[in-house]
């Protein structure tokens, strides 16, 4: 799987999020644990690679060819961080909406912990953009990608905004709410996927080490969807038809809140120095 395909997955998840949000079944604990584990592993990979490349630049005298290769490697990691943040924010919003609907704190603490980790990587990427070591052309290209990812994130979150609080997950919550209130702005699934494919078509590279981690993250996300959300072909079923079926099959007992402990245990296991605050102001980032 190349890195751009994660944007298409984010679009599918946003479009079919109600399969998870409205499901009477509890979210699988194993899927949440795997999402946490592999997301943290991805963060470690990014930070280690950026630190290694920085150390290499400081300690070694590099030729022009070596400097070029280093800059390409740094750019590739920053692109991964920006592009995969779309999926991180969308999935966090979906899990938050699921907890809101069920009046529990189960999946949201896990998802927020992952988002905070991703924000650490984002902050590190932004530092690399302004430290003066990348060429102006690369900085301009990465900054353009950052803005594109932010717009697409808000567009996808607009599908949740009318019903659920997404302020903590959108880059511009007002933009997301405006999109959500205007139903005509939400594209049909084929058009939406085509738009994502075109918008990120130039980012079709595959980082082998990161790709394996990303596959595990994607698997954990898809494993959180109920079985009845999929047709035998593997495509998503109509949520309206599924509502009818679920209303007939739904048991009267409420969803248990024991899952609260999972979210709290995982989130509380994060060392205090690894708990990162949301940026106070996006003005700190490049415009």
Automatic annotation (TrEMBL):
This is Uncharacterized protein.
């Amino acid at each position: 799987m190349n890195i751009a395909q994660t944007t298409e997955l984010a679009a599918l998840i946003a479009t079919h999020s109600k399969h998870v949000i409205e499901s009477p079944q509890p979210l699988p604990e194993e899927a949440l644990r795997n999402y946490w584990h592999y997301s943290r592993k991805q963060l470690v990979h990014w930070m280690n690679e950026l630190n290694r490349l920085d150390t290499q630049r400081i300690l070694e005298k590099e030729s022009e060819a070596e400097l070029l290769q280093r800059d390409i490697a740094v750019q590739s990691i920053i692109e991964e961080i920006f592009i995969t943040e779309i999926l991180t924010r969308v999935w966090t919003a979906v899990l938050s909406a699921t907890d809101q609907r069920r009046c529990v704190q189960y999946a949201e603490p896990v998802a927020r912990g992952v988002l905070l980790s991703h924000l650490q990587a984002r902050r590190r990427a932004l530092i690399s953009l302004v430290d003066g070591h990348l060429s102006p052309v690369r900085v301009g290209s990465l900054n353009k990608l950052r803005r594109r990812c932010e717009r697409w994130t808000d567009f996808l979150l607009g599908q949740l905004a009318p019903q659920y609080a997404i302020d903590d997950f959108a880059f511009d919550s007002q933009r997301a709410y405006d999109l959500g209130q205007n139903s005509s702005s939400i594209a049909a699934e084929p058009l939406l996927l085509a738009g994502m494919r075109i918008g990120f078509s130039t980012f079709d590279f595959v980082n082998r080490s990161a790709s394996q981690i990303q596959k595990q993250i994607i698997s954990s996300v898809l494993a959180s969807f109920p079985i009845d959300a999929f047709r035998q072909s593997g495509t998503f079923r109509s949520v309206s038809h599924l509502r009818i079926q679920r209303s007939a099959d739904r048991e009267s007992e409420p969803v248990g809140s024991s899952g609260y402990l999972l979210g709290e245990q995982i989130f509380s296991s994060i060392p205090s120095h690894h708990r990162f605050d949301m940026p106070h102001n996006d003005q700190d980032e490049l415009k």
